């Protein structure tokens, strides 16, 4: 994991750290090209070209920003989607790995 990401996530509880790591790995596994990890406005971001996915950690949940979340909104009906189109996954909720894999793959495709 990117050292800046490690420092940022270190202040969070173990559950948030584990969720962050699982989702980070899922992002990396969703595409066959190299992903650039960097902070954008102090937010962990994963880039392929201009396309990105962001994971925003909070005390009791993670927000995931990816342009294709809205495409899969019906398949994510058990989760909250913010007015800005971010997916919220709260502690205790199972990570929808199959659907997120599709979201990340489509979001990070080079045009």
Automatic annotation (TrEMBL):
Lineage: superkingdom: Bacteria
Q: What is this protein called?
A: YdhG-like domain-containing protein
* Species this protein is from: Anaerosporobacter mobilis DSM 15930
